[in-house]
Amino acid sequence: MTNLIELNDVSIEFPVFDAKSRSFKSQVANLTRGVISSRKNNSTVMVKSLDGLSFSLSEGDKLGLIGNNGAGKSTLLKLLAGIYEPTKGTIDRKGKIVPLLDIALGMDDDSTGYQNIKLRGLLLGMSNSEIDSKIEEIASFTELGDYLDLPIRVYSTGMRVRLAFAVSTSVDPDVLLLDEIIGTGDASFLNKAKKRFEELKERAKVVVLSSHDNNVILNTCNKVLWLEGGKPKMLGEPEQVLNMYMNSVR
């Protein structure tokens, strides 16, 4: 079976400039659990956010990412999305990759709800014809009615979330990337949103999900990657990896 995602010994480093003292380097080391390396110039510290990752994902795989804050989960999702590229190693991505890392990204306050459906849809890689074919269904799902003709700056937070969620979950991805479960605003909308979210995950050939909710990981994933300080601590069956992780943080 063809791998849609394949990483080989991938590492990512970020430069932190103007490090003028050892005390500054110590602060950076504390923040990154010591994963730093100095370059030729003493004014620059290299922070290693991911270190030595190797794994592959093929159709049917649903990978859960676990680990403490700062473990590298969000960095890995951005790497898979193509936002970051490796400093070392190689990554091969195939198919349509849809990152739902910020569902409101690309929305414009001065544009109407309908215009924002198109803006967000284009950002997610949908074609104009694809958006046009889905816009009525998206509009209906939001339950916003005539508000869709108004600039979204007049929307409440819940209305904005409804609109962003409806557009973001209308895509047809090969690889779906999720950073935590998407909030959906008011309680009356929640059950409807949960069902739509489950349908989206089923449409995707591969799902990579970061979550602090162990039940979400267990109910969604067939593999779990435990990250610690940017390094792969354990990759395997969800229940086994989660048990090891929970025992380590008690």
Automatic annotation (TrEMBL):
GO cellular component terms, alphabetically, are: membrane
A GO MF label: ABC-type transporter activity
Give the matching InterPro entries: AAA+_ATPase (IPR003593), ABC_transporter-like_ATP-bd (IPR003439), ABC_transpr_TagH-like (IPR015860), Bact_Polysacc_Export_ATP-bd (IPR050683), P-loop_NTPase (IPR027417)
Sorted alphabetically, the keyword list is: ATP-binding, Nucleotide-binding, Transport
- One short Pfam family name for this protein? ABC_tran
Q: Where is the ABC transporter domain?
A: 26-249
- Which family, according to the similarity comment? Belongs to the ABC transporter superfamily.
Please identify the protein, giving its name as recorded.
Answer: O-antigen ABC transporter ATP-binding protein Wzt
What is the organism field in this record? Plesiomonas shigelloides (Aeromonas shigelloides)
